Amino acid sequence: MKTTPEDVGLSGARLYKIDHLTQRYIDEGKLAGTITMVSRRGKIAHLEAQGKMDIEADKDMDDDTLFRIYSMTKPVTSTALMMLYEDGRFQLDDPVSRFYAPFRDLKVYDASGDHQPVQRQMTIRDLLTHTSGLTYGFMQATPVDRMYREQGVEQSGSLD
Q1: Which long-range contacts (CB under 8 A, 24 or more apart) does 25-30 make?
Q2: How far apart (Å, rounded) are the C-alpha atoms in residues 107 and 152?
Q3: Whether the predicted model's global pTM rises above the 0.85 cut
Q4: Neighbours of 10 (CB within 10 A)
Q5: What is the DSSP string of 1-31?
């Protein structure tokens, strides 16, 4: 069921900012197209399709375009974190080390391959925006990927 943003306590003007940002990414060639939806209290408050679903065929994006979605843990984890944020449990610029002590004394590689202390602590915001500097070991593209494999970072385990 569709409604207006204001009917469910949201700002239509603020939701428009999402459309503006995604359209900018489309215009800059960063994305071919997007679909954004915001629902609240079981009602769709915002639904917008922009850009192309197929650039070569000049097919517009529709709000019912089907996608193969990968890495669904990212939006689920992000949503859970933002629920905790709304409850005041943390701030986006809190250091990750506040919640996970092993991240307190991180070192990074410099251009020569030497370890250096980090210039600033990794934050929750860095994790949510994928700008933390963490990598996927399976890509095998950096010395850090090799270290991940050697240390068994990718292996399943328990935090207990």
Answers
A1: 26/50, 26/51
A2: 18
A3: no
A4: 18
A5: -B--GGGGT--HHHHHHHHHHHHHHHHTTS-
